[in-house]
Design a protein that fits this description.
The structure holds 2 protein chains of 2 kinds. By secondary structure, chain A is of the alpha+beta class. Chain A has 2 domains: about 35 residues; about 90 residues, Alpha-Beta Plaits (2-Layer Sandwich), CATH 3.30.70. Chain A has 4 helices and 4 strands, in the order ααβαββαβ. In chain A, strands 2-3-1-4 form a 4-stranded antiparallel β-sheet, with helices on both faces. Classes of the chains: A alpha+beta, B mainly beta.
Chain lengths: ~140, ~200
């Protein structure tokens, strides 16, 4: 039984690794498409949440990101911590209910969706779209 | 990986142990945890160089064998599927004792959760010249309310657990609470009990 389990684990791991590679390949293709078509058109804003977030902000850039896999508070803890590592980030709001994260950047920040996607990926979630708004 | 393949994996690996909420942290994150039950207690620290794997050291006190040792342990995320409503994970883990070269364990752990429901399984197979046993575990849970970020989150859970040393499945309820970077799980049935505390930073 013990040997059977090891062999089964190795076989399945190998299979999963291959599928993972295939998924990565597909993701890269998707990523390319996303970068050229990120217009946030599918991002539905929660007005109350947004207004509260920007209420005490001065001139800033606010990014609203749609996130997949953000299903629990405990697994989303790293999002806030990682964004605050950037000195140009003024404020972060995680909303589990809407599956969105709002980030307020200083105007000096050159907002890049690829960079934002990587931050979410490093936390184990997937960013699927974003909207950028300017606060004056 | 489709959900059907995931279900097949559950069946292949059987009912399995040692379910930890998120055995890997975010990239660069650290976790400390304390776990105690009627068979053992442990202190565990792990670091995640990437969201795909963690490495750490665990001090284990096996009450059943009156044995204490430190093991080096690693967990790897084999597969993750994120959707708007859910996340599904499959991990493998392995550990090697620093006390005896022939003592090690390995296992597999899978979970699927939404903000409302949680299911998981795990299996841990421990091997050495003196003690061979398997811990199998299944969990299901429901959140009675949907907490927002930074609020207290509560889960009502049901755990079914087998330790092949006594060859009995024990099923009992437990409660899981988390707020901020802290998580606490407490459960008990007759002489059997579980306590699990975790902090991330």
């Amino acid at each position: 039984m013990y040997k059977f389990l090891i062999i089964t684990t190795l076989l399945i791991s190998n299979n999963l690794y291959a599928m993972d590679k295939m998924h990565d390949h597909n993701s890269k293709q998707h990523n390319h498409d996303s970068r050229t078509a990120v217009d946030g058109s599918k991002t539905r804003l929660d007005d109350a949440m947004y207004n509260k977030f920007v209420s005490n902000l001065d001139s800033s850039q606010v990014v609203i990101v749609d996130v997949n896999g953000m299903v629990c508070d405990f697994c989303a803890r790293g999002i806030e911590k990682t964004f605050y590592d950037d000195n140009l980030v003024k404020k972060v709001l995680v909303s589990l209910e809407t599956g969105k994260v709002l980030i307020a950047y200083d105007n000096a920040k050159k907002v890049d969706f690829g960079e934002i996607k990587n931050i979410f990926l490093s936390n184990g979630q997937s960013a699927t779209g974003m909207t950028l708004k300017k606060i004056t | 990986m489709g959900i059907y393949k995931f279900i097949v994996l559950l069946v292949v690996f059987g009912f399995t142990s040692f379910v930890e909420a998120r055995p890997i942290s975010w990239t660069g994150g650290s976790t400390v945890m304390y776990k105690s039950n009627s068979m053992m207690s442990s202190y565990y620290y792990h670091y995640s160089p990437s969201f795909k794997y963690s490495v750490g050291a665990e001090y284990i006190n096996e009450r059943y064998y009156n044995d204490q040792y430190i093991s080096i342990r690693s967990t790897y995320l084999l597969d993750r599927k994120n959707t708007k409503e859910s996340q599904r994970n499959l991990y493998v883990t392995a550990s090697l004792s620093t006390k005896r070269n022939d003592e090690f364990y390995y296992g597999v752990h899978g979970d699927w959760e939404t903000r409302r429901y949680f299911t998981s399984f795990s299996m841990l197979d421990k091997r050495s010249n003196q003690k061979n046993y398997t811990e199998n575990e299944l969990q299901i849970g429901i959140a009675p309310y949907l907490g927002e970020y930074n609020q207290l989150h509560t889960w009502i859970m049901l755990k079914s657990k087998e330790d092949t040393r006594d060859s009995k499945w024990k099923t009992y309820p437990f409660i899981k609470l988390f707020k901020g970077d802290f998580l606490l799980e407490v459960g008990s049935k007759e002489s059997h009990w579980d306590l699990h505390f975790m902090k991330r930073f």
